[in-house]
Amino acid sequence: MKPLPEIGLMPTKPALDERPLEKRVGLIILATDHTSEPDFRRMVASDRIGVYVARIPYKNPTTPENLRKMQPELSAGAALILPDEPLDAICYSCTSASVVIGDAEIEAAVQAAKPGVPVVTPPMAGVRGLKALGAKRISILTPYTVETSRPMATYFAERGFDILSFTCLGFEDDREMARIAPASLVELAREATHAEADALFVSCTALRAALAVPGMEQAIGLPVVTSNQASAWNCLRLCGDDKQRPEFGRLMTLPLG
Q1: What is the pLDDT of residue 32?
Q2: pTM
Q3: How confident is the model at residue 12, as a pLDDT?
Q4: Backbone angles phi, psi at 52, to 5 degrees
Q5: Residue of 101, 205, 193, 197 lying closest to 155 (CA atoms)
Q6: What DSSP string runs through 138-188?
């Protein structure tokens, strides 16, 4: 072996940018999640906005009891995302758990690790999205069981929406929910939307529903808001990104308000 060259040390270091990317979005997802990361990579991440992910423990079936068990993990999950560095927004990507645990409780748990960071949950973003669209009478489609769907109905009713129809598919495993084809969601949206509704909300971050929004909107002739689409929209606007993205539905053309 030839002698190794002497290792030289530069006398000065290069100047550092303030951040590698201008904006930072944290994403807390379930250990079993197949969908949130690809959706946020597709809709949020750019050469200006970074998406940084932490996974927390979760075990199926998707019941209110199992969903509630994630609450103690939220602070630890948030703390793992760029420790000691600020974020511009952080999303806990589970719609049904956010409803069961509560938005305020989730915000408190996340901010215990990341003080002051704006916290987004999918149902919270869904409400903001539906209001931005001017929707008051809505239909809701979920992949959950009836038991897990009931708190969702209460959540939206308590926030002033008139729920004209609520349809669930009866799945208990979020990994199976992720395997529902986007094309199937288009047909399901057609069947689940009430004739007098102003919009359709499709719940669940496991569903590949963001990919189906244009097809669903065309099929029913109404705006469609989905969990990941609404969360992505909310996070983008918190990062000061007001670019219109009609390829992800009517909501993605609107300001946060």
Answers
A1: 97
A2: 0.95
A3: 97
A4: -120, 125
A5: 101
A6: EEEEESS-HHHHHHHHHHHHHTT-EEEEEEE-----HHHHTTS-HHHHHHH
> What pLDDT digit, counting tens, does each position of 78-125 carry?
999 999 999 999 999 999 999 999 999 999 999 999 999 999 999 999
User: In the structure encoding, which two tokens stand for residue 38, read together?
Assistant: 């690809």
State CA 110 to chain mean position distance.
Answer: 15
Instruction: Write out pLDDT tens, residues 116-163.
Output: 999 999 999 999 999 999 999 999 999 999 999 999 999 999 999 999
119: which residues sit within 8 A by CB, 6+ positions away? 89, 90, 91, 92, 103, 106, 107, 110, 111
User: Residue 154 CB: number of other CB atoms within 10 A?
Assistant: 12
Cα 247 to Cα 253: distance, rounded to the nearest angstrom: 9
H-helix or E-strand spanning residue 54: strand 49-56
Domains 23-122+230-248 and 124-227 fall in the same CATH topology: yes
Domain ranges of the chain: 23-122+230-248, 124-227
**Residue 228: exposed, middle, or buried by beta-carbon count in 10 A (0-12, 13-18, 19+)?**
buried
- The two structure tokens encoding residue 34: 């197949």
CATH of domain 23-122+230-248: 3.40.50.12500
Task: Give the tokens for residue 67.
Answer: 């969903």
Tell whether the model's pLDDT for residue 209 goes beyond 90.
yes
Reported residue count of the chain is 257
124-227, which class in CATH? alpha beta
Q: Which one-letter DSSP state was computed for residue 113? A: H
